[in-house]
Amino acid sequence: MKYKRILLKLSGESLMGDKQYGIDNNQVLQYAQDIKGVYDAGLEVAVVVGGGNIFRGLSAEKSGMERAQADYMGMLATVINCMALQNALESIGVETRLQSAIKMEQICEPYIRRRAMHHLEVGKIVIFGAGTGNPYFTTDTAASLRAIEIKADVVLKGTRVDGIYTADPEKDPTATRFDEISFQEVYDKGLSVMDMTAITLCQENDLPIIVFDMNIPGNLMKIANGEKIGTLVRDMGSAPSPNLPV
Length: 246
Fold this sequence. Notes:
Blueprint: E1 5-10, H1 25-40, E2 44-49, H2 57-62, H3 67-91, E3 96-100, E4 109-110, H4 113-121, E5 125-129, H5 139-149, E6 154-159, E7 164-165, E8 177-178, E9 180-182, H6 183-189, H7 196-204, E10 209-213, H8 219-224, E11 231-234
């Protein structure tokens, strides 16, 4: 393994599979099996899940809903997704802990940093729900924040595309993929990797990001083994971490 501890970010939309809405149990199970693969190999894994397959705060705001209220509704949607992933992981024999930034004692633990790190150290997968617990922040920002807090080696953003492109590859056939890019280039080119708050957190804490296609079984294991999958985002001005493929 090239890493000791990772933070995997999954979008809510990725849980839809081929559906237009909601949760595709087969897709969630595939993700769970891939996560179990790296977990069984000895990697410590934390996961942040979005909620866009159920409710998107920004979209609700555009239709007239008050932004903070809409964001809190989106946070609750992420917990539903986290519960689905937790169920899938435990159905294949992986012990997990679900922590929420909003207290929901009947279904999950409150987020406590030291407790989360202890769970990881003793071999449990930790799933973080409800974003940061604050409106106006995305789950991308929550992923960056939690990764920094738990001292993860890297943020792995699992998407439905195989990396970062110069333009939307579904709309522009001439778009080309970056194998590696700096944080500054992401800013300068206005690339939609993660929101700017999330990118800034990672840049300021020298935390690399890998954007990759999570829908291809085995990709997560390849990254864990140091293969060049997807696009690596890091500070080009510093030497690469000894745990990172170069």
